[in-house]
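User: Can you fold this complex?
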Amino acid sequence: MAETIPAGSTTDGVIQVGQQPIDARVSAPASYDVADFPVPNGREEDWRFTPLERLRGLHDGTAVADGGVKVEVSAPEGVTVETVGRDDARLGKAGKPVDRVAAQAYSSFEKASVVSVPKEKVLSEPVRIAVHGEGGTAFGHQVIEVGAFAEAVVVIDHTGDATLAANVEYLIGDGAKLTVVSVQDWDDTAVHAGQHTALVGRDATFKSVVVTFGGDLVRLHPRVVYGAPGGEAELYGVYFTDNGQHQEHRLFIDHDTPHCRSNVAYKGALQGKDAHAVWIGDVLIRAAAEGTDTYELNRNLVLTDGARVDSVPNLEIETGEIVGAGHASATGRFEDEQLFYLMARGIPADEARRLVVRGFFAELVQQIGLPELEERLIAKIEAELEASV
Amino acid sequence: MATLEIHDLHVSVEAEGGPREILRGVDLTVKQGETHAIMGPNGSGKSTLAYSLAGHPKYKITGGTVTLDGEDVLEMSVDERARAGVFLAMQYPVEVPGVSVSNFLRTSATAIRGEAPKLRTWVKEVKEAMQRLSIDPSFAERNVNEGFSGGEKKRHEILQLELLKPAIAILDETDSGLDVDALRVVSEGVNRVRESGQVGTLLITHYTRILRYIKPDHVHVFAAGRIAESGGPELADKLEEEGYEEYVKGGVSE
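Assistant: Here's the predicted assembly.
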């Protein structure tokens, strides 16, 4: 399978292309070893938004794995699904863990799951990975490897109750196309942290859709690195943060390779007391990454009082020889005046709210371009609204 | 025949230092087919009357009654009032991002009519109404009031008036901020609705200019939170000549 791994990828950290980004925003350099990270105290830039006391010990070494998370993979014919030990050469190639919880997951899992789509295989059906929590604590690792010129859609569904720290790696071969939908539809008691890193090969296309509805605390790091020129990454996110939920998405696009594109669009709605959404969008265009084209957007819609959004886009540019780079972030309120206007046209309050929220998400949902997901998303958004109105 | 009856209406708003009374006993009856102009200086309470009738939560009714065909309007929620046939064309309609005009109009028409209008006839109906108001077809895909010019906002309000066909239309300073051309287009829209004879119109304005296009049956001068004088169209001519001075001096100051 070696030929399916994009040039420039790392193998257990032996061959390194450039360095992991080290800047003022991270508290320690990336590492596979949890011992390389100090226990966060909450004052660090990368932890300051996260309620550490709700991480159930995932951050300080006190969380003990007791199973309780069931993972089922169903894949169409031709796809290989393996459970492998820690020494498997395919693990850790996309990049090192960037914070202590991701490193804890990497240091603690016993078995990893590897899903491989052979080169040039075009799947007509998605690969489905169901991660169901049964109340326990678990550490996990998942690799999804797509060979050169293969095309695949992978849907990862998280449901139930769990305390889970798990990383996912996407290794996308040259010219391959991978779409991943990760749905965090947890019970409202679950805690989920993890790093999702994609290594995008030459002329490969990676599309990520992160959908977070559930959980007491969800903290994800969707990350993209490019192994070779011509790579394209689209990262979409939809979240609906309710009463007391903490949902945090910390994105990083590492443009270290020339002529790659990235486009990020995350939209979230919040309602209820102490609903807290955090969106961090870091894009780094390194000196070597000439011809880069990147844009990132975050929009939030606050539906009720008592909710809080922290949205922080960061763009760091080390070369002027780029096609484009931009970002936008805005947080709006569904205001009483909007509600009055719609109601003054005969539209009942709950329907008015639905109309606005549906409209807010519609554009993004269409942009994602997966009809099956579109319906599910709309239904889910409606259900979230229904539960609250 | 629909009749809106306002009797001894008192309305307050919360202000620094406690509630402040703005309407101080308004009496007015508007019947279907009639047009009443309510004219008055700034701060006289005209807009408060409009928003109180529509049910804006900022305004607290402290006394009096409002009925539509005997039904207690003040007991109704904002959307219930709209469905009962009260329409308020707003002076400053708000932006509703993410909701397209076409989606908004259809949702609203569905709510008001009690059933979704048939798609084919609806599309035609909207298209024709937009044409009559010289509204560009691309307008339908824009978000409600987002980036609309002042004139576009007012046309959009009158478009809704034409489509929703209320029993009572309250037009709150629909003429403000319009140039003469836009004023004519908007007034023609209002007149088309009036010609149906199905609507009672409450035309709230600071200026007499719009009355050249929309002829009222009754003119009321509003001052210090109540109707100070009522008359026919000739009262507007008098205001044109003399302004509001007579009503402001010696009136209860704000």
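Residues 1-22 of chain A have pLDDT under 50 and may be disordered. Residues 2-333 of chain A form one domain.
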